[in-house]
Amino acid sequence: MRFDLIAVGNATVDEFLTIQNASEYIRLDNGELKIKAGEKIPVDFSEFLLGGNAANVSVGVARMGLSVALMAELGTDEFSEKIINVLKKENVSESLLKKNSNTPSSFSVILNFAKERTIFSQHLKKEHNFSFDNAETSWVYLTSLGEDWRTPYGRVLEFVKRSRAKLAFNPGTLQIRAGKESIAEVLKEAQILFLNIGEAIEISNIIRSTSSGQISNIEEILRALKDLGPKVVVVTDAERGSYLINEQGEVIRHGIVKVEVVEKTGAGDAYASGFLSAVLLGQSLGEAMSFGARNASSVISKVGAQTGLLRKGEVK
Q1: Closest-CA residue to 174 (of 191, 199, 155)
Q2: What is the DSSP letter of 248?
Q3: Per-residue pLDDT at 211
Q4: Average confidence (pLDDT) per 10 residues, the chain, 316 residues
Q5: Among 241, 231, 250, 229, which Cα is nearest to 197's?
Q6: What is the pLDDT of residue 145?
Q7: For strand 106-113 and strand 116-121, is the pairing parallel, antiparallel, or unpaired?
Q8: So what's the pLDDT on residue 71?
Q9: Topology of 2-12+53-103+124-314 in CATH?
Q10: Phi, psi angle pair for 259, to nearest 5°
C-alpha cells in the first residue's frame, strides 16, 4: 500500500495527572515545582492517552483525511495493545510497527499544574530495527528516537534517496545533543526542517537576541539553519508564533491563534502535523503555517497531545 506519509519515531502511553490549584502539598516557588515528599496528594483529573512525537504527527495527519503509517517499536505488553487500538481508531496503519518482546512499550507520566507540564519519562534502549521493504510513500516524517538512533536514521536516508520520497525532519533531544555534524546528512536531505526556538538556537549556535519581546535576529538564525541543507526551515516560538524561510530565502512570520491554555503537551507536533497536512493537500507555505498554528492552539486548549488535533473540515 502506498501512503501519503510514514512517520518514523516513538509511540508512548502518557498518563496525565492534572492538579488545578496549589495546596500545602504542591506549589510553584520562583519557577520551581515543589512537592511535599511522602504525602498522598489528591489529583483532579487522570487519564491515559497516546503520545510520542511520531504517533502524534501520524494521528494529526490522518485526521486530515490522508493515508498514514507509523513506524515505531512497541513492546508486547498491555500498553502496546492500547497504542495499536488507538491507531486503528484513528485510521493510522500499524503495518510498519515493530514488536519487541524484550523491551516494554514506552510510558510517561505528565503532571499538569499551573498550566505547565512536568514530564517523567523513561529512556528505554530499543533496537529500532525498522524495515522499509515494500513501503511506498510520498513523504517521510523523521523525529526523535532513543539511544541507538544512528542506524535507523541511516535506513531512512537510504529509503528517501532510493524512493525519492520527500523528507520532513524534527530531531529530538538526543540527536541535537550529539551535534549537528551527527545529523548533517539528514539536514542536507530534508525538504522541511521543524524546530522550536530553543532547538534552533542550539543547532545554529546563534545567541538569542530580543527586543520588546521579539527575537531581533530570527532571520540570522533561519539563514544559518538553511545553510545546513534543508530547503525549508520552520521555527516555532510559543506565543510569538512561527517563522519560516523558503527555498528562495524569503522569511515569513505567522502569529498564533489565541486560546485559553489548558496543557501544552504536543503543541509542536500539532503544528508540524497541521503544516505537513496542508503541504500534502497542495496548500501554500503561508497557508501551511496557518494550519499549523490552528492545530497547535486547538491542542493546547485540551489535555493531551492528540485530543485537540483538528480534522480537515475543522481547520478553517
Answers
A1: 199
A2: T
A3: 62
A4: 95 89 87 88 88 95 98 90 95 93 83 84 79 94 92 96 97 94 97 96 83 74 97 95 97 94 91 98 97 96 92 86
A5: 241
A6: 92
A7: antiparallel
A8: 97
A9: UDP-N-acetylmuramoyl-L-alanine:D-glutamate ligase (3.40.1190)
A10: -140, 165
To which residue does cell 520532513 refer?
Answer: 168
Alpha helices in 164-230 (DSSP H): 173-177, 184-189, 197-204, 218-226
Q: Fill in the amino acid letter for 298.
A: S
Indicate the residue type of 154. Answer: G
Contact 172, 272 (CB under 8 A): no
216 CB-contact burial (10 Å; exposed 0-12 / middle 13-18 / buried 19+): exposed
Q: Dihedral angle at the C-alpha atoms of 134, 137, 139, 140, nearest 10 degrees?
A: -30
Q: What is the pLDDT of residue 254?
A: 96
In sequence order, which residues have a C-beta less than 8 Å from that of residue 207 and are 6 or more positions away? 201
Smallest CA-to-CA distance from 24 within 9, 41, 43 is with 41
How many whole angstroms separate alpha carbon 159 and alpha carbon 176? Answer: 22
Q: What residue ranges do the domains of the chain occupy?
A: 2-12+53-103+124-314
Q: Which phi and psi (to 5°) does residue 54 adopt? A: -65, -40
Residue 108: its pLDDT value, please?
85
- Identify residue 311 by its one-letter amino acid code: R
CA distance readout (Å), 172 to 83, 162, 169, 180: 21, 24, 10, 12
